[in-house]
Design brief:
Layout lengths: L13 H7 L2 H8 L15 H7 L4 H14 L7 H4 L17 E10 L6 H14 L4 E5 L7 H4 L7 E4 L13 E4 L1 E2 L5 E4 L7 H7 L4 H10 L6 E7 L6 H9 L5 E5 L3 H16 L4 E6 L4 E2 L6 E2 L7 H8 L3 E4 L4 H8 L9 H16 L7 E2 L2
Parallel strand pairs: 1-7, 1-8, 2-6, 2-7, 8-9, 9-12
Antiparallel strand pairs: 1-13, 3-4, 5-6, 10-11
The structure holds adenosine-5'-triphosphate and magnesium ion (MG).
Amino acid sequence: MPHVDLQITPATNIKDLVAALPIAADVLTQFGLGCSGCGVSKYETIEQGAAAHGLRAEPIVAALGQARLSGFVPLIANEDRTPARKTPSAPGAFSGRAKIKHVVPVMSGKGGVGKSLVTALLALGLRRKHLRVGILDADITGPSIPKLFGLHTPLEISADPNAPKTAQGNPQPLMVPAISRSAIEIVSSNLLTDKEDTAMIWRGPILSGVIRQFFEQVQWSDLDVLLIDLPPGTSDAPLTVLQSLKVDGVVLVTMPQALATMIVRKAANLIHQLKKPILGVVENMSYFVAPDTGTKYEIFGPSYADKVAELAGAPVLARIPIDPEKARLADAGEVEAIDDPICDQLATALLAALERTPKEKETISLL
Ligand SMILES: Nc1ncnc2c1ncn2[C@@H]1O[C@H](COP(=O)(O)OP(=O)(O)OP(=O)(O)O)[C@@H](O)[C@H]1O
Ligand SMILES: [Mg+2]
């Protein structure tokens, strides 16, 4: 009998389990845990994975045991694979508010520097530390977060039973975030349908209104960190978002270009004018290491990370090399398959910066 020694308990590591018992991947998928294609599973036990997805571990362990004995994926009760979500319509609706400990926008002085990829890598690193993470894709002009995570299914939207009706007497929408394979909650304008019923809700939206809706009218879980992928640049759009939300501090993403210092100076001034702290600077596409020789090439020129950090008055959180494999996985919608220590470095540096940054003591209540 194969796998007879394999212990399946809540403390079993997911990656080890799937390696020893391949059918476990199918069982986990049935529960909505897409662990086999996800780099985070390497760091998670069944219990941690279940908790991240808002599920109980016991039915998962039981189903895995059954699958091992029978060789088939057993039938799974709906309630066991439906994440426990706070419903604001429940009695005592106010207890249904999500608590979000830290809100961290990711900003860049200009487009195309890898802001969305850095946001995703940060989220993965935080998940690898077993934190609960959400991404609000505020870049409604070119939203790319769902694409990185391979998400296509439109968000579930219902009428908010608690919010007051609009001036036209229409109900306000209440969205359920998409959940990625590694249990990152994601909201993006790319995940809205253009069906009649929802078109009504989004007619003529202005940016800050839409972003506020993404922030407030979403059934976020209690999150440790909500990352916000801001529109690029220092135009009205990112500033409106920054202004309209209570944030812990901004992460600035740049590239090694002389121009970056000028652009970052402008961005930093604007952020400071809005009285928001800068948590740190990430220099993306900083260098390239040739896989055959290990030689380091500064493709875009020498690093400006320290200079930029000085201008921003904030530390360098990380320098990320150019990596064609990351670009490939990102383009294929498999950003979560990236298994790179840079994720941990980014997350550790961000958490340290958050720790150092003074903020209002209370957590933010939503909904
Ligand atoms: N370190 C990297 N190594 C290799 N490719 C990268 C790296 N960072 C980003 N890329 C690639 O560069 C492109 C731009 O990245 P991304 O979409 O994250 O940038 P952005 O700043 O969010 O852009 P936009 O301003 O359009 O929102 C993508 O194809 C991405 O996969
Ligand atoms: Mg982007």
